[in-house]
Amino acid sequence: MAKHNTFGKLGEQKAVDFLKASGYGIRALNYRYLNAEVDIIAEKDGFLVIVEVKSRNIGFLEDMSRVITPKKVKLLTMAANHYVEELDRDLEVRFDVITVVKNADKFDIEHFENAFYHF
């Protein structure tokens, strides 16, 4: 596995740990539908939460509006719709972004709820 893929998986695990510690139930990891992949699907307080994880080193920060493109939003929405249809439960869906930034030997984690409204 390439170094950036390994780092991305580590970032996703840090995000999962963060969500669990925040009371979220993890429902799926790396859920795929057609060309879309959702990093994490979680549930909390009646919400099905579709989570995109962005892992970066401290020196490589980008504006999230450039990282999460309209095409990515469309793919995430398509995958979320498919997952909800498979689940056959009445839950509100929310799209969140978690950034995991490696800063020396620690990880700074930020959770943006309803993220697509912020960008």
TrEMBL record:
InterPro entries in UniProt: Restrct_endonuc-II-like, tRNA_endonuc-like_dom_sf, UPF0102_YraN-like
Pfam families per the UniProt record, alphabetical: UPF0102
Origin: domain of life: Bacteria
SUPFAM superfamilies in UniProt: Restriction endonuclease-like
Family: Belongs to the UPF0102 family.
HAMAP family assigned: UPF0102 (MF_00048)
Protein name from the UniProt record: UPF0102 protein PY092_15875
Naturally occurring in which organism (per UniProt): Flagellimonas yonaguniensis
